[in-house]
Amino acid sequence: AQGNVIGAIIAIIFGLYIGNDFILIGVASIICVALLMQFRLENTIGLAVVTLIIVMDSPGNDFLEIALIRFGTIMLGLLAAFIVNLFFLPPKYEVSLFQLIYNTNSEIVRWIKLNLRHAADFPLLKKDMEWMQKQLNQTRNLYGLYREERTFLKKNAISKGRKIAVYRQMLLCSQKGFELLKIQHRYENDYLQLPPDKQELIRQHIDYLTDKHEQLLLTYIDKVSIDLEYVESHLAQDPQDLMQLFLREMRETEKDEYEDMMDKYHLMRIIASVFAYQETIDYLEKLIHSFKLRHTKENQIDINVNEE
Fold this sequence. Notes:
Blueprint (H helix, E strand, L loop, with lengths): L1 H16 L4 H17 L6 H12 L6 H26 L4 H24 L5 H27 L5 H33 L1 H5 L3 H25 L18 H15 L4 H36 L15
Helix pairs in contact: 1-2, 1-3, 1-4, 2-3, 3-4, 5-6, 5-7, 5-9, 6-7, 7-11, 9-10, 9-11, 10-11
């Protein structure tokens, strides 16, 4: 609504004092876009420009009256859409957001595991990585819509605040997983040159993290029960082993030749991306366990996922 008001005001000022031919409509549109970006209302640019064009396209005679009627009609339509979304057909951003996060993450995890086992088709992976990036961008946009969605009951607002924190971390975990996949893909030759025991150490640790990530998403929607002893399960992998490998490679790098030093630098990039992924996963686990174990009555989740 703010964008529509700004667009209508600019259109009326131009129509009354400057003119409303097609060149001036273009100039007014540029000014409108600049103002909206200044006020950080980028999401409303499309509707605001449409409002501006409709209002400025009013006939010369009785311009103000016709412009106000058109603007009022637009605002009435927005009000009707708001009422429908609020009471009859709510948009359900939360369901769409989790579904998008789940499907995108499943694809990222699938490719990470294929890469670890040297079974990835590189042309297909490159194409799929472009799709993943678009999905992550779409997820951020949907997260913004969910965050801005209004709640009128204080009880629901508190619960939604907790959910926003969880979804923000889910999005960050998917982003770190995608970054790990890109590092894997870029430095795969360096990974293959490692001794088998080092490859196995890295593979086991990444497998543990990806399995844990998938389990946490299913735990959030009550498809998997909360496992307070998860660290003791058969999937557990001690991160200290990977840290020792990382520190050992750093020490050896100081006395290596340049080519060997670059290979070890690439290995350290891989290990660093694994640690970054682990850090986000660990924090997501804390958030979800806290969300599920406290305030259980308020934190109700009713989401079903469909794999694409």
